[in-house]
Amino acid sequence: MADPNRIEEVDACNDAGRQCIEKGDMEGAFEQFNRALSLLEPAPDPRRKAVLLNNLGHVCVALKRRDRALETFKEAAGLCDQLGDRTGQAWQLGNMGSVYRDKEEHEAALESYTKALAIFEDEGESIGIADQYSNIAYIHAMKRERATALEWFGKAKALYESLGQDRKASLAQQNIQILTSSGNS
User: Quick check: pTM over 0.85?
Assistant: First the structure.
């Protein structure tokens, strides 16, 4: 069993990291989340560790430390899988897809997004499904596969609308309009 004092310190570092993010201090957040992770050893709490890895991964994305972000999201996905948290695993796969997207590794991004989509569909997680539709559409747009991108953005828009996600539906519609007016094929 984990030491309650150590867990309090881990949680305090996590809170401090989130406060750093709110202040725009990504380096401070990076330090706090890494400190929290080191405090979890040698007897880590897998759920806490997955949350910390997710937080650290997003900070790494903001700092453009993409390889480190991928490592943290992969580890978090593995922990979520071990915990039986399929939805958490899917979100981590989606995060990985976005890092691959930023690295312009389109096929790896599509693979991650497709895996996330399959889990979200199995779990009936509608917002996750819609987000992956949009993510997949964006990759096809980056690959200049206009018709396929339009199809996926259309699916995302319809699902966002049915969920009352007006802002996200509007973004999908804007992407549809850009693709429709462009000469990409």
Answer: yes
CA-wise closest residue to 133 among 111, 109, 157 = 157
CA separation for the pair 171, 1 (Å, rounded):
46
**C-alpha span between 57 and 75 (Å, rounded):** 10
How far lies 105's CA from each of 57, 110, 168, 183, in Å? 18, 9, 24, 23
Crossing angle between the packed helical segments 126-142 and 106-123, to the nearest 10 degrees:
160
Q: How far apart are alpha carbons 127 and 136 in whole angstroms?
A: 14
Helix (H, G, I), strand (E, B) or coil at 103: coil
pLDDT, tens digit, 9 for 90 and up, residues 125-153: 999 999 999 999 999 999 999 999 999 99
CA dihedral 110, 112, 118, 119 (to 10 degrees): -160
Tell me the pLDDT tens digit for each residue of 39-49. Answer: 887 667 899 99
86-102 and 106-123 helices, crossing angle to 10°: 160
